[in-house]
UniProtKB/TrEMBL annotation:
Leucine-binding protein domain mapped to chain residues: 35-369
Signal peptide residue numbers: 1-22
Family: Belongs to the leucine-binding protein family.
Keyword vocabulary terms for this entry: Amino-acid transport, Signal, Transport
UniProt protein name: ABC transporter substrate-binding protein
Family annotation (Pfam families): Peripla_BP_6
Species this protein is from: Bradyrhizobium vignae
Domain of life: Bacteria
Lineage: Bacteria, Pseudomonadati, Pseudomonadota, Alphaproteobacteria, Hyphomicrobiales
PANTHER family: LEUCINE-SPECIFIC-BINDING PROTEIN, PERIPLASMIC BINDING PROTEIN OF ABC TRANSPORTER FOR NATURAL AMINO ACIDS
Alphabetized InterPro entries for the sequence: BCAA_transport, Leu-bd, Peripla_BP_I
Length: 405
């Protein structure tokens, strides 16, 4: 386990004395151990470290600094190394020994699934930003887990319709063999068919694959005019580069289904231009997103991804609920989180549904052509706003056992 103080200078232990807006009748919050402790479990040094990693720690620290007045807040962090067993061991120590009240980010759905049952048994809140399988708000939903940022269902629905409307009707998938990759391909395939498209094949590959040649050639020979990459940052970047090397960008639409800002920054506009992406956040969309992104850049030395923005938003909302209720009791705090709407730069009017999905608008982005950008991080055009309710699975169809039918 590595504490965030080893990584970033402002790793937080806020013991601020300003009076809280809402406290118990006795004047002080009833915290089980005198503090609110938040653990950021993420990929610090691995292939998704730019998309999550130190930036997720920085985002949680910023939320604690902005909303921790009147509370004793501590933010710690650890690197799960992409391994569910390591993630479980860290979370177990956090819950049993370190007194962690809530876990944020949880980069990687396998890590999220590994920790979720433990968190529920020990009455701890999970704020998922980097765990994206739609099963977290479906058959595997849990009363103390909120999927905050994005899931494979709304990514799939947004991407399928927009790409098919643009003429991409024959889809071939490159799927990382992990929970979120398989869920992303499953959900997108369903939406492709519902929108009149055709799935012509799927190649499943192990994480951290270095050679996509055979998969890409198979996709081309199958007659695909869409090659959809269902993977996280490291594999997405490799696949994008090799698709360009094989000249496939001229023959098919390359759609990185879970791409983020840092992926496009890594490969460059020459390779990624015109690719579509569905995202809950883009730093240069509004004055509010730009203002927050500039503060984030000063701390993290990069522009924020949607995962970073989701970590900040979820931790801020959690701390508001702790202050409003005057306690860190997880069920009580979760009820308050459900009660209050989310109004910030990330979500204009977000809310937590019974299936523990935070509903907010998403955006169809298209990567700019070389020369259109005004700076190194000016990478997208915002094509369309996608209303949150229209992108998420209707509650009437939800397999989540928390939903009353």
């Amino acid at each position: 386990m590595v504490r965030s103080s080893l990584y970033l200078s402002a790793a937080v232990c806020l013991a601020l004395t300003a009076p809280a807006a809402a406290q118990t009748a006795g004047g002080t919050p009833k915290l089980s151990d005198g503090k609110v402790k938040i653990g950021v479990l993420t990929d610090i040094a691995g292939p998704t470290s730019m998309a999550n990693g130190k930036g997720s720690v920085a985002a949680a620290q910023m939320a604690a600094e902005d909303f921790g007045a009147g509370l004793n807040v501590e933010v710690i962090s650890a690197d799960h190394s992409g391994k569910p067993d390591i993630g479980s061991q860290i979370a177990g120590r956090w819950f049993d020994v370190e007194g962690v009240d809530a876990v944020a980010d949880m980069q990687g759905s396998p890590i999220g699934f590994a920790v979720q049952n433990m968190a529920a048994q020990k009455s701890k809140i999970m704020l998922l930003s980097g765990s994206t399988s739609s099963d977290f708000s479906g058959k595997a939903c849990s009363p103390l887990t909120v999927q905050w940022t994005v899931d494979t269902y709304n990514l799939a629905k947004g991407a399928a319709k927009s790409v098919i409307d643009a003429g991409g009707t024959k889809w071939y998938f490159l799927t990382v063999d992990q929970a979120y990759g398989n869920a992303l391909t499953r959900d997108t395939s369903e939406q492709v068919k519902l929108n009149g498209g055709q799935v012509v094949g799927n190649s499943v590959f192990p994480p951290n694959t270095s050679d996509f040649a055979s998969f890409l050639l198979t996709a081309s020979s199958a007659g695909a005019n869409v090659i959809a990459i269902a993977a996280s940052s490291g594999d997405t970047v490799t696949a994008l580069k090799q698709a360009d090397e094989f000249g496939l960008s001229a023959k098919a639409k390359i759609v990185p289904l879970q791409s983020v800002l840092t992926d496009v920054h890594a490969v460059g506009l020459k390779i990624a231009h015109d690719a579509y992406e569905v995202s809950p956040f883009y730093w240069d969309r509004t004055p509010e997103t730009r203002a927050w992104a500039e503060k984030f850049f000063a701390k993290a030395k990069q522009m924020p991804t949607s995962f970073h923005a989701g970590v900040y938003s979820s931790v801020a909302h959690y701390l508001k609920a702790v202050k409003a209720t005057g306690t860190d009791d997880a069920p009580t705090v979760m009820k308050q989180m459900e009660k209050e709407r989310v109004h910030d730069f990330f979500a204009a009017d977000g809310y937590i549904r019974a299936d523990r999905k935070m509903i907010h608008d998403m955006y169809l982005l298209q990567v700019k052509k070389p020369g259109e950008n005004k700076g190194a991080w000016d990478l997208y055009n915002v094509v369309q706003t996608l209303p949150g309710e229209s992108l998420n699975r209707p509650l009437s169809e939800s397999p989540c056992p928390l939903v009353k039918k």
